[in-house]
Amino acid sequence: MAAKQRVLEDNLLHLGGVRPEVVMRAIHGPVWGYRHRARLSVRMVARKSGALVGFHERRTHYVVDMDSCQVLPPQVSTLIPPLRALISSLELAARIPQIEVAVADNAVLLALRVLDVPSDHDLDALRAFSARHQVDLYLQPGGPETLRPLEPERAHPLCYRLPEFGLELHFQPGDFTQVNYAVNRVLVRRAVALLAPRPGDRIADLFCGLGNFTLPLARSGAKVVGVEGSKDLALRARENAIHNGLGERVHCFDANLYEDAPGVLARIGPQDKMLIDPPRDGARALVQALGPDAPARLVYVSCNPATLARDAAILVMQKGYRLRAAGVVNMFPHTSHVESIALFER
Q1: What are 305-320's pLDDT values in tens digits?
Q2: What is the pTM of this model?
Q3: For residues 205 and 215, what is the distance between their CA atoms, to the nearest angstrom?
Q4: Which of 1, 17, 204, 327 is most buried (most C-beta within 10 Å)?
Q5: Quick one: what percent of the chain has pLDDT higher than 70?
Q6: Considering its fold, how many domains does the chain have in total?
Q7: Residue 26, phi then psi, degrees to nearest 5
Q8: Is the pLDDT of residue 17 over 80?
Q9: Which of 182, 208, 184 is nearest to 73 (CA)?
Q10: One domain for residues 63 and 19
């Protein structure tokens, strides 16, 4: 974590020319069993007399011969040997290249990419596996839109919870959610504390996803407008607001924050506070579009220290903000991936 903090500070200084006034304590959590989303590769290997299920060796297409994985939740790690046996027994075995894993708070989902139609024999074997191990199996014969549950009547509506805020957020198998639930809960708490929402505040949550920050901010009594590039995720955010009794305080819509940032800002109007949580490309168009009526307080959640540094330079040198605080988020233990959170004020 100290190394990641140095990466963040070096990027801010050398790429952005800015220093945080305060270096916040790193956000961290469990280092094992944390990865609630993963993509497992599948490979039939004759000399192994069956299938390998796991991750690729570094910079190769070879699949590691593994029977457990310490960064996956235990209930998924223990499934690797049974999955190997299942795949090896299928007539479709050589036509299953990967398995997507999604662990919700109420279910474990395995989505098999299938390149041919499963036979009746294979469907029976898949149903038996699902019942024996209490997992929801999905099949994906084509693009993401073809993903369907093997047994729709038994599939769980997936959700994760933010207990501190009394929230339950529903999501679909293909939706973006954070891989590390424990760290996400601390990150949400930190973001809300930095914004310090009060009843009646107008807060914008840009790149809002399915409401991960939107709903906790609204729980304080603030009126929150969420903007998301994905139409499906914006719809999910609205549905989650209604599900949690926040429909009157939350308004979410889909819009392209890269191509029409000035138009989006004009549409949402003046805001008291703002949260930005962009993809790796950052939010240059958005921060450049901020005008004289921009919020006095802005929290930026980043998954790329280089684009955060670039955008921080714009906020500080062109928009009159101060970088009050910044710190790292150890979302991916055992990796060099650096996520962070920063507070800007003017």
Answers
A1: 999 999 999 999 999 9
A2: 0.94
A3: 10
A4: 204
A5: 100
A6: 2
A7: -65, 140
A8: yes
A9: 182
A10: no
The torsion angle over the Cα atoms of residues 75, 76, 78 and 83, rounded to 10 degrees, is 140
> 126 and 258, same structural domain?
no
Report the C-alpha gap between 120 and 86 in whole angstroms. 15
What is the dihedral angle through the alpha carbons of 269, 274, 279, 282, rounded to the nearest 10 degrees? 90
Q: Which residue has the tokens 């299920």?
A: 53
Helix or strand or coil: residue 268?
helix
CATH at 133: 2.40.50.1070
Close Cβ partners of 179 (under 8 Å, ≥ 6 residues apart): 34, 35, 36, 37, 38, 331, 332
Query: Given 105, 130, 149, which residue is the final one in a domain?
Result: 149
Query: Of 113, 18, 4, which is closest to residue 321 (Cα–Cα)?
Result: 18
* pLDDT single digits (tens) 24-65: 999 999 999 999 999 999 999 877 778 999 999 988 989 999
Asked if 252 is an active-site residue, the reply is no
Same domain, 143 and 272: no
Backbone angles phi, psi at 121, to 5 degrees: -60, -45
Residues 6+ apart with CB under 8 A from 52: 41, 42, 43, 44, 45, 63, 64, 65, 66, 84
Instruction: Measure the CA–CA gap between 346 and 342, rounded to whole angstroms.
Output: 14
Asked whether residue 92 is assigned to any structural domain, the reply reads: yes
DSSP three-state, residue 99: strand
In the predicted model, is pLDDT for residue 19 greater than 80?
yes
Q: What is the domain extent for residue 121?
A: 37-149
Question: Is 79 in contact with 87 (CB distance < 8 Å)?
Answer: no
- Residue 176 token pair: 């973006």
